[in-house]
């Protein structure tokens, strides 16, 4: 009896896997490179096409011979459910490796958190959060991001100022606000995700971004970035992986031109 129940269960599982793959295939467009993105997540994705992830999407559309189209939706709770899983798109750009909500492609870059200071500040040479120079200083961070834990462990919790993580970026700009507070002197420094902060300070005459390569312990401060596709979309994943491998130099050029700080796969060295 138990053997028959186990056999029936295995049949159901095996039948469900092809069904899921078939559903994913039916959702996928074969005539467009359909991307879901936040319309106001500067400098990554922007509705006017100016974000560096927009440029990478354009590159992939060109290589695949498909026009790039967008379904715009603010990032936050429900983003995956309302976009990728709803069949509104086939690809989400800029997804951290290991997130179980999507199937990840191979990563196409690795970046890191860093500290933003004024160039003329006495903190301009700081490159790790346990530097004694940071004690008693006003430091901004986006709440709920990995650096917050490191700041607390470094004894900086009392002077840490958190900005909201889950916001509608069409009306709020937490990273931009923190950068302006560093510029004005209201904050002494801010610890921010490189792809969000690096491009904004790349040509800034007042601010600088220093990658935090020396931080130890969890949570880690570097992340490998992939594209997200639906579970079951193995063919699309393989196709994108092939394009990443073939066009890595062009991808890196787009990222460097934008000012995204790039590291090796282990967050130990900066890539030139």
From TrEMBL:
Task: Tell whether Signal is among the UniProt keywords.
Answer: yes
A Pfam family annotated for this UniProt entry: SBP_bac_3
Organism of provenance: Paracoccus albicereus
Q: What are the alphabetically sorted keywords of the record?
A: Plasmid, Signal
**Membrane-spanning segments:** none
By what name is this protein known? Quinoprotein dehydrogenase-associated putative ABC transporter substrate-binding protein
Give the top-rank taxon of the lineage listed in the UniProt record for this protein.
Bacteria
UniProt cross-references to Gene3D superfamilies, sorted A to Z: Periplasmic binding protein-like II
Instruction: Extract the signal peptide range.
Output: 1-21
SUPFAM superfamilies assigned: Periplasmic binding protein-like II
